[in-house]
Write a structure and sequence with these properties.
It is built from seven helices and no strands. Helix 3 crosses helix 6. It is globular, with a radius of gyration of 18 Å. The protein starts with 5 loop residues before the first helix and ends in a 17-residue tail after the last helix.
Length: 172
């Protein structure tokens, strides 16, 4: 591993391991539960991440542009992904694991070139290595969303929350 990408690999690995850990012991009801009818559920979030991670991986591996707008062709790809939690989680695991492996084998120049190729349609604000950290940030944002959904699910059933139950900054 190139020394300069080591912290990026560590961050990606840590976030992915934590993400998988936070999905343990999900029930079928939890996967489909929504706090409001128009809200996301965990099944939708995993499907979304599967699609987005495939795009990020294609950018990292081959410099393919990450879509910034959904064309009819991309909409077909989106529509072809089923709402199957187990299948999408397996595909997400494969893509995330591959993303980390590809990142591990890169040096900063390669990462910069792939980011430029994959992000040509995004406004440039000196985000030369966006591909290396966008994925981990995106997963982290959805970890928070999943924590909230899972905690609300448990609270609505009179059960103790799963995440941060004894945190004094979140008094209950």
């Amino acid at each position: 591993m190139h020394e300069a990408v080591e912290p990026l690999v560590e961050m990606s690995e840590w976030v992915w391991i934590r993400f998988k850990e936070d999905l343990k012991d999900l029930t079928p009801e939890e996967i489909e539960w929504r706090p409001l009818p128009q809200a996301n559920n965990i099944n939708l979030i995993i499907r979304h991440l599967r699609i987005e991670t495939d795009w990020q991986l294609a950018g990292l591996e081959r410099g393919e542009p990450v879509p910034d707008d959904v064309t009819p062709k991309e909409q077909q790809v989106i529509d072809s992904v089923p709402f199957d939690f187990e299948e999408n989680l397996k595909a997400l695991d494969t893509s995330c694991t591959r993303f980390i492996a590809v990142l591990r084998d890169m040096n900063l120049d390669q990462l910069k070139q792939r980011t430029q190729a994959a992000s040509w349609n995004y406004p440039s604000n000196k985000r030369e290595y966006l591909l290396s950290y966008h994925h981990a940030i995106h997963l982290s944002q959805h970890i928070g969303q999943i924590h909230t959904i899972r905690n609300l699910y448990r609270e609505t059933r009179g059960k103790p929350v799963r995440f941060f139950p004894d945190n004094p900054t979140f008094p209950r």
